[in-house]
Amino acid sequence: MLSLNISRAYHHGFILTGIPGMPDKNTWTCLAFSLGFLYSLTLLGNGTILAVVKVDQSLHEPMYYFLCILALTDVSLSMSTLPSMLSVFWFNVPNIAFDACVTQMFFIHVFGLVDSGVLVSMAFDRFVSIQDPLHYTSIFTHHIIGRIGISVLTRAVCVVFPVPILIKRLPFCHANVLSHSLYCLHQDMMQLACASTRVNSLYGLIVVILTLGIDAFLILFSYMLILKTVLGIASRAERLKALNTCLSHICAVLLFYIPFIGATMIHRFGKHLSPVIHMLMANIYLLLPPVLNPIVYSMKNKQIRRRIFQVFQGRKNRAW
Predict the structure, then answer these.
(1) Whose CA is closest to 43, among 294, 320, 296?
(2) pLDDT tens for each residue of 232-276
(3) Could you tell me the pTM of the whole model?
(4) Cα distance between residue 165 and residue 101, in whole Å
(5) What topology is assigned to 2-305 in CATH?
(6) How far apart are alpha carbons 75 and 45 in whole angstroms?
(7) How large is the angle between the packed helices 25-55 and 302-319, nearest 10 degrees?
(8) Residue 178 DSSP symbol
């Protein structure tokens, strides 16, 4: 009973560090506007993708429906970190309540796993479109795509749901300053506990292996099958055309997994490195993919690029 009371007594809140070693007000203002620009670009880019797919009937295909799910996930992930970013940089309030921190942590981890699950679905989508193009649309019906989306979200929620419970059972009686500058993560919160965090660490490791690890393997396996199928195509031009349809997805996968692996490696083995490096890697992992994914798909996909140009050309003509 005493330990429970101690645990509750110290569940008051945490302090986000901001940018370590940068007390200059002008620098903070510049960073605030830069981060605000990135969030605006995320909303604009992903919103444009959603609007273009909705308006253009020729884009009502499984590939673009999965792209819309990815865009919605990226926006949701960005919105999960936005409140604390505004609090730290725009309102100079680094404090975050314990329950708010746990809630933010939950949504960040959920949408991160959803992002990974969507990338797996898109990899399978690319394989089916190359392996069996004639039955592609009949395999990925609206009903099937909806079930895939619900399954990916349900998996993420079920896997992350125990994490807030594991965090809330811990007593926090040490310093309450989180190592990340803008948001709350499970590994940072549990490091501040003054009790054994073995269960939390073990559960976090199992989750990473059974979700992100398996997802990465499934994506790699899908592309092995895609490569095998493409090599079986007689025409060189058709082979290049088939591979070209995968370029956008490959870029999206690299944008998600490379920063994640880098942030994980630095967190595990780079404790001696500057806090600024930890901060940069963590922020790149969460902020960069939502910003760049719409740009990558717009540049690599002719249909989306053409439709965006038509929209802006139409506005320009109406203005004249």
Answers:
(1) 294
(2) 887 888 888 888 889 999 999 999 998 888 877 776 666 666 666
(3) 0.89
(4) 13
(5) Rhopdopsin 7-helix transmembrane proteins (1.20.1070)
(6) 10
(7) 100
(8) E
